[in-house]
Structures are given as C-alpha cells and as structure tokens.
# Entry
Amino acid sequence: MKKFVFRDHSSIGHFISEEGREDFQIAYDEAMELLPSPRETKDIKTEYGVVRVYLFTEEDNKHKEPILLLPGRSSSTPMWEPNLEGLMKERPVYTIDLLGEPGMSIQVNPIKNQKDQAKWLNKVLIDLGLEKVHLIGVSIGGWTAMNLARYYPENITSVSLLDPVFVFAPISLKMVAASIPASVSFVPKFVREKMLS
# Structure
C-alpha cells in the first residue's frame, strides 16, 4: 500500500488515517485534471524517500533549459495550475511534490538538517539529467530553492522566489501571533481577513 506525506511528530511525513489518505488522493486527482497533461511522470528514489516529478512541455521548447517549480507548505504540483500553461510556452517545466509535504512523494527517512534537504533535491536533478535549471519556489519552496543553491549551485541557472520564508529574515513573533487567529476556522471571517492583511 502506498503511503502519502504529512508532517507529524515522527519527522517522517505520512497520513494519520486511511480515510485522510483516500480523501487527499481524490482531491489531488481532481486538481491534476485541471492541469495540462504531463509529458512524463517519474518517481525518483532518494535516500530520504521517493520524489514524484512531472514534466510539462511543448514540443518546440524541449531543447531549452527547464524550469523547476517548488511548491509552498502543505501544497503540491496542482498549486501551479494558474501559472503552468504560460510557463510551458517558454520552457519545459518540471514540478515536484516536496518530501514531507502533502503530495505523491513518499518520505521514508527523516530529513535532519538543511544539507539533507538539499541532498535529496540535488539527487532529483542528477537523476533527471538536468545540467542547468531555473528554480522557482514559493514560500517554503523558495527556501528550498535557496537551500539547494547554497549547497549545490553548479546546476542552477537562476532562482526566482515568491514570498520565501526564512530566506531574508526569520518570521517575526508578531507575524506568528497574527497567524494564529487567521488560521482558526471558528474565528469570524472579517477577523481572519484583518489578521491576514
């Protein structure tokens, strides 16, 4: 039986129930239907788990240096739906589901530090045969992109960051305090929106 990923106290991402896994799989499959059909789907084995990779490209762009999209926290490949078709017109686009986050990647060993985080992603680049790649990361994906650039810069052509966390500064205590009511569903909507602003 295939396991899917969520973070918990064990430091290895997984679902906490079979029902949760099934609900996620249904939602993921429905969201993937909104994307262009991937040209390739690969599961790349690393020391820390199996990483799901999708390739989206148009025939005319196959020879260009690709883009690798790194999703945000609690997100996966379907989050790129609004951007994918436009990016595909320019270059081949790879997307991955991060280890330890919801998606089709399966974490099997703890990722203990920043070097481990870079190590598994670099293994993905090597196995894909990507000599040069443009990284685009949002939120924790932005941090993941910069972390890879720190440890393994040789295959990276450019890095584009969208609201990266922990890259330029730590998250302030004020932001942490404001995010609590913004993320609790029983707090009135106008209060949550005010806190998010």
